[in-house]
Amino acid sequence: MLEISGIQAGYGSMAVLQGLDLQVKAGEIVALLGSNGVGKTTLNNVISGFIRPTAGSVSFKGEVINGRKPSEIVAAGIAQVPEGRKIFPNLTIRENLRLGAYRRATARVEQNFERVCTIFPRLKERLGQSAGTLSGGEQQMLAIGRGMMSEPDLLILDEPSLGLSPLMVEEMFALITKINADGVAVLLVEQNVMQSLGVAKRAYVLEQGRFVMQGEAATLLADPQLRQAYLGM
Amino acid sequence: MSSLILPAVLSGLMMGAVYALIALGLTLIYGVLHIINFAHGSLLMLALFAVYFLNFYLGIDPYLAIPIVLPVFFALGYALQRGLISPMSSGSEQNVLLITLALSMIIDNLALYFWTSNTRSVDIPYAYDTVEILGAFLPLGRVIAFGAALAAAPLLWLFMAHTRTGSAIRAVAIEKRGAELVGIDVNHTYAVCFGIGTACVALAACLLLPTFYVTPQVGYTFVLVAFTTVVLGGMGSLLGALIAGLLLGVIESLCGLFLGESLGQIGIFVAFILILLFKPSGLLGKVGR
């Protein structure tokens, strides 16, 4: 469904991504693993249309989407939940969620709203509250819920477990599995290798703008090199 | 003396409502685009001329010109932001200041060139009609302006609070990246906002002209007060601008009463300095945004 081939991108004269190929098939959870500063967020920004790649192409459902505006890419069916969440703190939770459906016809909004409320009961209890008053974990849920409101075929989550308590991290990964069970493909961008490989079907490991490992999650989890580098085992 | 104070307060409120309306447009543009629009006064002047010429050549009453002038100036504001200010600023706020300043100079001087510095006013049958309120006789035009300007503020608020475009504008104002991620076209939203801000001065022009005049320099009379109103109300606050506008209108009128007509505006700036001395974020401004 998402086909990335030969992507090179960077900021000014600094090249960050040095030719990446990545696929996400319909209904899959794919993990994109790597530590800080290896280019994970840059790749996200290329997919979402904030950065134009200098070479390569991104196609979604068979159509080339690099070069389109971020708003058009959302309309095409890719929702990104960014690092730092970027929710609207002065708007209520209800308004945040409704804005998630900005590019969708009104007919289905109510139905999607109910669905998000079922997945995130904590949000449902606080619909009239302004989003800035939520805890970090709840803000993350709101950001994901807002992404879900656009009925995406692909949901990109950029470090959803960042800054959450261990208990909350467990809950977050359980929620990701639940969202995926409804048929939404997920590209999970994470530093939490163990948890991510636990929920993902396949994974890519990014180092210095290149993929150094890729394959089935179960295979990677057993790989001695990966265990050494990322899990210290 | 006391018999003069009530009429002065009332007449100050009438003028203050128009100040508030002009400031609403300015504060909306500032609150969302984070730019200071120096061309606001020039656009007001342009709108006043538009209303004047519609009356002079086509005999259209200034109030009936509202449905014509409002959409035209919305479109003008939209086009200015989308076609000129945004492409030329390439994202830098200093550039925006220079562009809107340049725009105001160009508009003002073109107006001077084509229409000369003559003072013009419309000739309408009800120009000298008055209304008696609480024993004070007030010009009908001012009373209408007061009512319409006060009605515009809650309408704008309702639009911002309860429409899809309104919540998109608020989303863009507070979290631009987040807004792009839900699929809001930020450049379009900015231009809509600039259009609404410009439509506010167009409405103000329709309400002002029956009791006021137009010259190419008329913008300055209002834009300084409008800037003061915006800062005083708290940058970006709609309700703050409304309250500050009314307050400044009353202060100006009372100062005019006690110090003489030509010194009325001194009071505005003294009050401005005093309030900022004691509440630097303005009346309804948030501290440290």
Automatic annotation (TrEMBL), chain A:
Gene3D superfamilies per the UniProt record, alphabetical: P-loop containing nucleotide triphosphate hydrolases
Entry keywords, A to Z: Amino-acid transport, ATP-binding, Nucleotide-binding, Transport
SUPFAM superfamilies, alphabetized: P-loop containing nucleoside triphosphate hydrolases (SSF52540)
Annotated InterPro entries: AAA+_ATPase, ABC_transporter-like_ATP-bd, ABC_transporter-like_CS, BCAA_Transport_ATP-bd_LivF, P-loop_NTPase
GO biological-process terms attached to the record: L-amino acid transport
GO molecular function, one term: ATP hydrolysis activity
SMART domains the UniProt entry points to: AAA (SM00382)
Residue ranges of every copy of the ABC transporter domain listed in the record: 2-233
Record-stated family: Belongs to the ABC transporter superfamily.
PANTHER family: HIGH-AFFINITY BRANCHED-CHAIN AMINO ACID TRANSPORT ATP-BINDING PROTEIN LIVF
Protein's name in the database: ABC transporter ATP-binding protein
The organism's taxonomic lineage, starting at the top: Bacteria, Pseudomonadati, Pseudomonadota, Alphaproteobacteria, Hyphomicrobiales
From TrEMBL, chain B:
Keyword Endoplasmic reticulum listed: no
Keyword Transmembrane helix part of the UniProt annotation: yes
UniProt-recorded Gene Ontology molecular function terms: transmembrane transporter activity
Location in the cell: Cell membrane
Ranges that cross the membrane: 6-31, 38-58, 64-84, 96-116, 136-160, 190-214, 220-250, 257-278
Pfam families with a match to the protein in the record: BPD_transp_2
GO process terms (BP): amino acid transport
Any one annotated GO CC term: plasma membrane
Protein family: Belongs to the binding-protein-dependent transport system permease family. LivHM subfamily.
UniProt name for this protein: Branched-chain amino acid ABC transporter permease
Classification lineage: Bacteria, Pseudomonadati, Pseudomonadota, Alphaproteobacteria, Hyphomicrobiales
